[in-house]
Design a protein that fits this description.
single chain; 211 residues; alpha+beta; 9-stranded antiparallel beta sheet; 9 strands; 17% helix
């Protein structure tokens, strides 16, 4: 009888000790709810890239089409994406009223001195890191590929989401020599004087993507 009482006492102690654990860990597992990443497809008809290049004696500027890509958002926040740029569509808006000079400039930009579009018709930008800065402001880091050469690019951007649409606006400064575009660069040709073209050019982009 005493043995049975002792056994019963031990069982009771074990059950009491394990009761809180059983309460905290019920047999049914509760799945955690996490935001699902959403992929938005770039709308090429509403997206555009504006470029600006400067030289000692002036500057040129124009547009080039964004052909395709996607932006990825998680919980309404930008997390990634890829954009493809069709360099064959490059045009100069500052020379739009002078067809002869416009065509001469664009022909030069398309040849091997610059973008070599016959061999490299597109450039791509792939986002590798997105840092939220508060509100709809972000710092974006990615790999930019031009003429088969890839180098990192970083720029601030404003990203807004409305309904099924996400819009990203940003401006980046690009060093063309990182992509083996050296024509007219003082970094490689020190004696070219007033024919020098700045190594850096800027791209001001608007990317519109939809679900």
């Amino acid at each position: 009888m005493k043995v049975n009482q002792l056994f019963a006492g031990l069982m009771a102690a074990v059950l009491l000790a394990s009761a809180p654990v059983m309460a905290e860990n019920p047999g049914k597992k509760v799945a955690k709810t996490t935001a699902k990443a959403t992929t938005y497809t770039v709308d090429a008809t509403q997206s555009v890239l504006n470029w600006n290049g400067k030289k000692v004696t002036g500057e040129h500027y124009g547009t080039v089409n964004i052909s395709k890509g996607n932006l990825i958002a998680d919980g309404g926040k930008l997390t990634g994406g890829t954009v493809e740029i069709d360099l064959r569509t490059i045009t100069s808006t500052d020379l739009k009223d002078n067809k002869e000079y416009h065509d001469k400039l664009i022909g030069h930009l398309k040849n091997d001195d610059f973008f070599g579009v016959d061999k490299y018709p597109t450039a791509t930008f792939k986002i590798t890191k997105v840092t939220p800065k508060g509100g709809n402001q972000y710092d974006i880091v990615g790999d930019l590929t031009i003429k088969g050469k890839t180098a990192p690019a970083t720029f601030p951007a404003t990203v807004t989401t409305s309904g099924n649409t996400i819009t990203a606006n940003g401006k980046a400064t690009i060093d063309r020599t990182k992509y083996d575009i050296r024509y007219g660069s003082k970094s490689f040709f020190s004696n070219i004087g007033d024919k020098a073209i700045n190594d850096d050019f800027t791209v001001d982009m608007k990317v519109v993507a939809k679900k």
